[in-house]
Amino acid sequence: MLKYIFSLLFFYCFSLMSYLPLANATIDQHQVIEEFAESFIKAQLPSSQNERVSIKVTKIDRRIAVTQCEGNMSAELVGNKSLQRSATVKISCDNADNWQLYVPLKIIRLVPVMVSNRPLSKGSRLTKNNTKIEYMNRVLLRSGYISDLAFVNRARLKRPLSTEQMISTRDICLVCKGESVTITSSVGNLTVKTDGVALANGILDEKIKVRNSKSKRIVSGVVQAAGTIQINY
User: How high does pLDDT run on average in the chain?
Assistant: First the structure.
């Protein structure tokens, strides 16, 4: 019985020792280099709470013979260092073979963009109920996209939108031309409010002209919120 158990243990140990070289031989050195290049680029990119970054590594031709790097493997950025859309990383190995490879990568920057979550007609007020945030490739976006509902809360659409259509600053007015607004002005600790009429469309923090409904005086003020203009003296 003991002889039988010993034979089994011997066979198990021999099988394990035979398997280990095979397991090591299956390590994909090309994949190791690709992951090293990706990690290097990730370390170079500035972190941003309002941005998601996706990196796509161009696969190395598996016909290229690559030995395992027994020395120091290093990475170096080649050429364009802006890291906006693409990058090329030179991977070098300091050993007897002293090899180096160039690995191209694509960098996709996704930013939060406000879109409509259902068809909206001209004049609709934007709220959290009829908008949502989608992440989109920044390179493909036109200027004026909006990332935060707080910027446009209660803004009115100047044109109709279809479902999941991007909302830009050109599509909205937080204060719209011809509508009644509240004009506020502050002198020290005193705040005065009066009625007025907007003479132009305006978005948050934009300066527009308004007419005081009582004095008929035309003044310039800053859009503070939907229907509110702040006058600073």
Answer: 84
Q: How far apart are CA 24 and CA 65, in angstroms?
A: 16
Identify whether the C-beta of residue 208 lies closer than 8 Å to the C-beta of residue 175.
yes
Q: What is the pLDDT, as a whole number, of residue 51? A: 84
Residue 18 Rama label (left phi>0; alpha psi -120 to 50; beta): alpha
Give the DSSP letter of residue 170.
G
CA 110 distance to own-chain centroid: 3
Three-state DSSP class for residue 31: helix
Q: Is residue 83 within 8 Å of residue 131, measured between CB atoms?
A: no
Query: Residue 228 and residue 212: Cα distance in Å, rounded?
Result: 13
pLDDT in the model for residue 91: 93
Long-range CB pairs of 177-182 (<8 Å, 24+ gap) are 177/201, 179/227, 180/213, 180/227, 181/210, 181/227, 181/228, 181/229, 182/227, 182/228, 182/229
- pLDDT of 172 reads 93
